[in-house]
Amino acid sequence: MKIKKGDLVQVITGKDKGKQGKVIVAYPTQNRVLVEGVNRVKKHTKAGQTARGSQTGGIVTTEAPVHISNVQLVVEKDGKKVVTRVGYRFDDEGNKIRVAKRTGEDI
């Protein structure tokens, strides 16, 4: 997967189009990422009691995973944030390095 945990990404389609956020968790087997502040959903939790006796439950707002094809990596070029695709190259020792296609810089 070309997007990793900690990357800054921008949503390119859907209800949150244009929003930017940091990747919290990547799910490579499902081709999805959890992005901070994007695709927020309301979840209704059943009321219950904790060990101290306080009430829990109600409506909780959390982020839901977004498909990897709906986000694009954001890199900085000359002080501006630019969205780019990700490519790979190998260095002299054979290590795989991610490269920003638009700027040509290593990520």
UniProtKB/TrEMBL annotation:
HAMAP family: Ribosomal_uL24_B. Belongs to the universal ribosomal protein uL24 family. InterPro entries: KOW, Rib_uL2_dom2, Ribosomal_uL24, Ribosomal_uL24_C, Ribosomal_uL24_CS, Ribosomal_uL24_KOW, Translation_prot_SH3-like_sf. It holds the Pfam family ribosomal_L24. The keyword Ligase does not apply. One of the proteins that surrounds the polypeptide exit tunnel on the outside of the subunit. This is Large ribosomal subunit protein uL24. NCBIfam families: rplX_bact. One of its GO terms (cellular component) is ribosome. Part of the 50S ribosomal subunit. SMART domains: KOW.
